[in-house]
Amino acid sequence: MADQVGFIGLGIMGSLQAMNLAKAGYELTVFNRTRAKAEAWVAEHGGTVADSPADVARASDVVITMVVDGAQVQDMVEQALPGARENTLFIDMSTIAPGTARALDERLRAEGHAFVDAPVTGSSPKARAGTLTIMVGGAEADIERARPLFEVMGEKIVVCGEAGQGQAVKVISQAITAVNCATLAQGLVLARQVGVDVDALLETMDGGSSDSTMRALKGKPMLEHDFTPLFKLAHMLKDVQLCLAEARTAGGAFPFAGLAAELYGAGMGRGLGEQDFAAVLEVVEGITGTRL
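Above: the chain's sequence. Below: its structure in token form.
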């Protein structure tokens, strides 16, 4: 018999992940802090709207959280615990600090439950297509219990180690993504400054050693100043800051990520937090006085 599944958090990503679970035949019990979003989701995809996280847990063998940050994850889990069935599997798919994930694992195991951290990457198009990359940390048996759900939501499931290691892989990967995007923005603006045909630069990069997924995904939107949010700049800054905090805790360093954080932080100051993270281009334009 398949596990009954609850889903907490129906934002840009969570709503699409939950949609794919519903399409696969899971009848979800859902909760969102803005109830209207949950009601609209259920009207379209079926399932049940819960009045609280505890009600989600009462109806579910597996509880998935997909919210903004570690504080929200901890809050939702604490609210869910009073209603939790025996041996509930909690899966957090948000991006949070690895240390927070480890603390959640300890807390839930002390209550007789299980925990897996499973942050995702791929932005909303891959969430819609069910082709996310999912980075997983936890005990092997718990990961295998969760695997059928992961296979609905993603196409690449990477087992990273014990609880917290999925988050560690995610925040380092996100910091690299942020650096790549900021680097692309700087290169494109410099090309404009020196009078280079920017389209020719992008065409030259295609397939060469300077090429990247970032060029393919963000090159044209940057040229068009189309920052429709696939992944918000504010969320990217949060992830980079989590990576830098993990680096400091480990006695390591990631200087390029620190420089990227300065640019994304400036983007927040310019009111770009709700835009796609490619809007870091506008920070570079502002610094250089050059419009792409």
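Residues 229 and 276 are 4 Å apart (CA to CA).
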